[in-house]
Amino acid sequence: xxxIIDYDAGxxxxxxxxxxxxxxTPVVTRDPQVIRGAGRVILPGVxxxxxxxxxxxxxxxxxxxxxxxxxxxxxxxxxxxxxxLFESSEESPGVSGLxxxxxxxxxxxxxxxxxxxxxxxxxxxISPRARLFQGxxxxxxxxxxxxxxxxxxxxxxxAATTDYGVRIHASxxxxxxxxxxxxxxxxxxxxxxxxxxxxxxxx
Length: 203
Known about the structure:
Blueprint: E1 2-5, H1 12-21, E2 27-29, H2 32-37, E3 40-43, H3 49-58, H4 62-70, E4 75-78, H5 80-84, E5 88-89, E6 103-107, E7 118-123, E8 125-126, E9 141-146, E10 148-152, E11 158-163, E12 167-174, E13 177-180, H6 188-199
């Protein structure tokens, strides 16, 4: 069973529908015991970093999230869910993230030909060792909606990158912890393959 964490940050139904299409039986929940007992956990989300962390803490979800990752359960962050795994964000100065990985979330710099937020399809440069992207060729296209991007401190965790005026760490992997800045649930066949790969990760 896959637990999809509900902390009032949206993007739940599309993730749930994608998993059901793949034959999974997801449960949308904010119950710490359900999260702790799940075979897989997904932290989706859209919105502001600071408000999201406030809601996670208000619902008592920080501890079960960190415990779930620590015990080796496959865990996937999506969009804002990726950003929350890191230490801080320029969007919300003074607010600490979950700190499960080292790095900062920075605002995409404005440019003459760049629209912010970045909305649309971009190709990925995929690390050959990236387990989440098995079966996908380098250059696969995925769908982004974001104004802030990850700058991971450790390049070894970066599984895929893209360019949008700046080099964006678009996906990370560290043991059982996976995350994507883009939306696999909205990325057509490539996205479904990414989600299938996650569901098939050994626990």
